[in-house]
User: Fold MBL fold metallo-hydrolase from Oceanobacillus longus.
Amino acid sequence: MLSKVTDNIFKLVIHIPGGMHEVNSYLIKGKNGYTVIDTGLYSKEAMDTWKAVLESGVVVEKVILTHTHQDHIGLAKWFQEHIGVPVFTSKLGYKEMLKGRNADASTRKLKGLIKKHGGPELPDHLKNDSFIFDFEPDGFFEEHDKIQFGTDFYEVVWTPGHAPDQYCFYQREKKVMIVGDHVLKSISPVIGLWTGEELNPMKEYYHSLAKINHYPVDIALAGHGEDIMDLSDRVQSIKEKHDYRLQQLLEQISEKGKTANDLCKAIYGESTLYTYISPFMATLTRLIYLELAGELFRVEENGIVYFKKTIHGSNAQRKLLKNL
Assistant:
């Protein structure tokens, strides 16, 4: 079930229902067992996979979380309570866990955010998975810390954007970086506002993409999909795609203004409710980025937000996109 990545790192692909349909966990071999990076979603499929791994004789020493999205933290509580394995997350991740425990408040904010930006009403029966956050981690890490995974020490690198608590882990001697969902090989990670709070994660994401380019990397291990052997090239490709989408938005906005929902449909087309939220979030976070960069402004009519283009000439637009 485990595939070998390097001399002491193994990948476990966990198939999960919905979402990305699979998530990568990494097991790093040490003298006293394996360090597990991310656990997969709380689901029967994921739990059965881990049970089979453990029954094969694999001993898990500890669990480390790259970030606290459901498909990465999902079985952390299970590991801690049922397997007796300590779980470590970042201090920022713990703050996100506290929000996750209050599912009703987060759902209300998310529904209000989508409605305010022209989107549809979300159903009242959204899945409540707050229980996966309801445990106390055994310890915390922060940026610049060094953590032992197996027999090697990894540097902690904060890369917010996809999640406020997204961290990468870098092994300097072996030039290995565990990137979680910060960079994926085949698709661009969704930059969203999953707790319903209006922030500017696109700005953080651009900075985080530039940040990891300072690290020499031979292989990057992603939270979904294949390993990345050319991290710098992939970072540049993702940046160029976001640049392109920002320009698309600027070209799509009319004098009357458009909602995030209008622009999402114009760029990504129609979709079902269950495939809608990710492209909507990608659109909204780019609009907020452009707004805070001075390219757009918003007006509110009957509780709905419309974005309009700031009138200061195309030269300013080109300068903005050039300096992203």
Notes: The chain has one domain: 3-238. Residues 231-252 form the longest helix (22 residues).
